[in-house]
Each structure stands twice: as structure tokens, then as C-alpha cells.
Amino acid sequence: MRTRIASTVLAAALTPLALTLSTPAAHAVPAAAPYDFNGDGRTDLAIGAPGATVAGQAKAGAVSVVYGSSTGPKSSTRTLLTQNTAGMPGTAEADDAFGSALASADLNTDGYAELLVGTPGEDGSDSNDGTVTIVWGSPSGLSGARTLFSFFSTDYDRYGQTIAAGDFDNDGAPDVAVGSTGPTTLSLVAGPITKTGAHNGGSGTGKDMWSTSYGITHLSSGNVTGDGHPRVIMHGRSAGTDDAVTTLADMEISNYTDWLQNLPAGYVSAVADIDRDGYADIAVGNDRETSADPAGALGGKVTVVYGGPDGRDTTRVPLVLTQDTAGVPGAAEKGDRFGSGVSLGDINGDGYADLAIGTAGENSSAGAVTVLYGSASGPTTKGATSYTQNTAGVPGASEAGDRFGERVTLTDHTGDHRADLSVSAPGENAGDGAVWSLRATATGPTTSGSTSFGPSTTGISTAGTPGYGTALNS
Fold first, then answer.
1. Which residues contact 95 (CB under 8 A, 6 or more apart)?
2. Which of 153, 315, 404, 474 is deepest in the core (most CB within 10 A)?
3. Which one-letter DSSP state was computed for residue 431?
4. DSSP string covering 17-45, please?
5. DSSP strand E in 317-393: where?
6. Cα separations (Å) of 178 from 101, 165, 207, 444?
């Protein structure tokens, strides 16, 4: 059953068409955490290389999955995925860009998380239709796949340029939200989603506020209102410009009133409870200069918006962070790109989500990462630290163009209930790309025992510019 949501003004009431849903099956086991593909209680690391050459096809794209261990991501235990992998739908073709976007959830609630991979360059009924592939978790890791349902292929292109997963319609089954370009910029594929079952309906929306040529460029989600029902943060560009637009969306099908709330404009975001008040907060990264985007800042900025029972807590002033903020390492300089990547996770195990911020343009785009810690009053600059490839113990050396910090992720790879810091530099080695992982401790990330690896270590060709780490666990 096709469902289309159409809207023309911000926060307007919307009217859905018919929707087919089914009751989710009873959960036999607890659902796995996102990115725990083998159900061992350790988060695995998925790394997208959309520029990878596969079987001679330039920019066909590939994804490496490195499994967690007691010492962090272990590159010797890994899975390589391309569209030529046995059991994967489709065929690797030039410019498919498989691995441009990644997301994860235990879609079939069997105790093993699934991996969703966006392939926005895939040709279908026309060029660059795009597709999303579901790769199934199992006790031995990822195995087997199917294509995510696509309801509106004539109304969008680049389906899968961004993805998020969670129970967005609040019916007890995980759903998938997919960004695209064209008249339909956001699609919701309703759960439950199983290996062989029929689809359970879906919806799509396009708003005049969005540039249809850019579409929805980034998605994140979390329990902003504290009710257990995740909301979605959507990023795009303003119609008629390339300025950022960011909104908070409630995608529950029965509620279209106040469906969107404006957020500070940016290009990436992360969601978690920084101040431990039961409401997830939103960190929005805008790495552009004001000359390129009126909402930007010299050297870039990150804005923290506090969550509350109605979504954005309008009683609290958002916290704006730059490299000129007292206590933040460094100084705001043109082109630093502070906020190129953001992630939230509890590094030191104190119950407050901490904030990792990528600064991919720092020092002629060598790059850097800054870590700020959570507290009862929000992020604090007390004890803030910065890491580069020149930091003692971090493998490699800072070089112009590496873009260390283009993407960052905080997640527990070791199973010790602390979030480890993983960082990508897609420009490393003239565009080969690489990923670093620093283990978490009670005092923050440690460079002792930190690891780094690139595409060749995990089976990806270095022909062309694979851009390893263009996408990381979201």
C-alpha cells in the first residue's frame, strides 16, 4: 500500500493517505543495540568507502565491518561487503556509491542488529534512483541481505543518501527513515521488517522549505522527549539557496500537528542525554563559514539544543561552541570546519553523554578531534581534550588534506560500558582514507593501545580514491 505525505508549510497539519500496517511479532529475545551484529554485547564498527573500485568499476563502493573485541575493533575479524558479495542484491557498477550512508537497528528483533547501507547512485527506473540494502545480523556476524522497500521511485532520486532506524511511528516495531532528493525528500518504511515478509506500508514527505536538488542530506534520531519514542532530526538545504535547514520531526503516523520544530541550522547531528535529565539532547554541527552559510561561524560551530517533554526545551538557551569558546582547545580560524562530525556517548562511564567534535579543516585540513564531557548542566569545557595524528600514541602523522575528524563516533566496542572514540580521515594517503580507534577509560579516551587501519587491511582496493571512512556508525 502506498502512502504519501505532502506538506507545504512548516508545522502545518498534514493528512495521510491509506496505510497498511501489521502487528509486530512478540519479541522472543531482547533487541540488540545498533551495530551489534553478532549479539556479543560489543558494538561493531561499520566503515563506508563509497569511492571504492570493485571489480574494475570505479566508485562502485564498499563497506568494511570490523567486529568489536575486548581491546576494541579487531581488523582481523571483519566482513567485507560490496554489491558483488554473495547474497547481496544488485551488482557493483560504476558510480553506485555503495556505502555512502550507514544505519543500524535490530529490525527483526532477533537479538542481532542489522546494517543498512545506502547506495544513492544506483540506477533503477532512471539514473541515480538509489537503493538501501539490509544486511542481516547473526551469531557469526553479518550474512544475507535484501533490498529495503522503495515506495516512490518515480518521485525521488538518490534514495539512501542518508538513513536512520528506530521505532519512529511508535507501534513497537523498528522503522527506517530514508533521505533522497526530488519531490519526495523523506520516506518512512514501516516495520516490522523481516527477511522474507511483505512490506507493512510507508509514507513520504516533501516540503517547500527543502531544496529538492539537495533533499534530506543527514538524519539522526533519539529519545528527545523522554517517552521512549525516538524523534528524527532532519538536515537539508533551504529552497533557493544552499543554506542549512535543520528540524526535529515526530514521525508517529497519527500525529501531524506540530510535526516539525526548527533547530539551529547545521549539516550533521547526534542525539543523547548530556545532562542526565531523562531527555536526549541534540548536538548540531555547522562547519561552514558565515560567508557560505549565514548560520555558520568563523571556523565552524556546534550548537547543543536541550531536549524536553515537548521536544526542544525552549526554556533553555542552546549552548554554542566554537574553538574560541573558553576552555575549548585551539582557536577559531577560517576553514577549520569545527563541527564536521559530531557524536555523543558516555566515554568515562559517569552516566552523562560526552561530545566528540571533528574539525576536519584544522591545519590545512590535516584535521583534529575535540572531546568535551557531559555534566548536570550540559557540556563542560573542563578537562576538554584535543587529538590529532601528531598526538603522542596516535598512529600516523598529521598531513595536509587528511581530514582527520571528518566523521567521529562514540560507541562501546569493548563491552565495558564506556564509549570508545573512533575517527575517520577519508583524505588519508591521497584519498585512500583510514580509521582510528581510541579505547575509553574512566578519565577519557586513551591513546595507549590505539589502533589505525585503512582500506587494504580490510579487503578494499586502493585504486582511485575509495574515501575509506566517508561514513561511520551513525
1. 58, 59, 60, 121
2. 404
3. H
4. ------PPPPPSSPPPPTT-TTSSSS--E
5. 319-321, 338-345, 354-359, 368-373, 380-387
6. 10, 9, 15, 34
Q: Which residue has the cell 501489521?
A: 22
What single DSSP character describes residue 197? P
Coil vs helix vs strand at 67: strand
Alpha-carbon distance 242 to 362, whole Å?
23
Alpha-carbon separation of residue 73 from 47, 185, 424, 445, 451 (angstroms): 11, 35, 13, 14, 8
Burial (0-12, 13-18, 19+ Cβ within 10 Å), 16: middle
First to last CA, the chain: 30
> Could you tell me the three cell numbers for 332?
577559531
List pLDDT tens digits, range 250-283.
988 544 334 789 999 999 999 999 999 999 999 9
Quote the CA–CA distance of 380 and 352 in Å, as a whole number. Answer: 11
Sheet bearing 175-181, strands edge to edge: 157-166, 175-181, 186-189, 202-205
Cα angle 414, 415, 416; round to 5: 95
Grid cell 515506495 in the structure block, residue:
151
Number of Cβ within a 10 Å radius of residue 289: 17
Would you state the pLDDT for residue 27?
A: 42
Computed over every residue of the chain, the mean pLDDT equals: 91
Average pLDDT over residues 51-69: 98
- Give residue 34's identity as a one-letter amino acid code: P
Helices (H), 229-309: none
| pLDDT band with cut points at 50, 70 and 90 for residue 28 | low
**pLDDT for the residue 155:** 87
pLDDT in tens, 352-361: 999 999 999 9
The single-letter DSSP state of residue 457 is: G
**What's the one-letter identity of residue 53?**
T
Q: What are 445's strand-pairing partners?
A: 440
Handedness of CA 241, 247, 252, 257 (dihedral sign): negative
Residues β-bridged to residue 423? 408, 436
pLDDT of residue 253: 52
pLDDT at 13: 25
List, in sequence order, every residue forming a beta bridge with 272; answer none if it has no partner.
Answer: 281
Phi-psi region of 340 (alpha: psi -120 to 50; beta: other; left: phi over 0): alpha
Q: Per DSSP, which regions of 206-287 are E strands?
A: 216-222, 231-237, 244-249, 260-263, 268-272, 281-286
Cell 563491552, residue located: 415
All 3 cell numbers of residue 403?
581530514
Q: Which cell numbers in the block locate residue 112?
A: 542481532
- pTM higher than the cut 0.85: yes
pLDDT digits (tens, 9 = 90+) for 405-452: 999 999 999 999 999 999 999 999 999 999 999 999 999 999 999 999
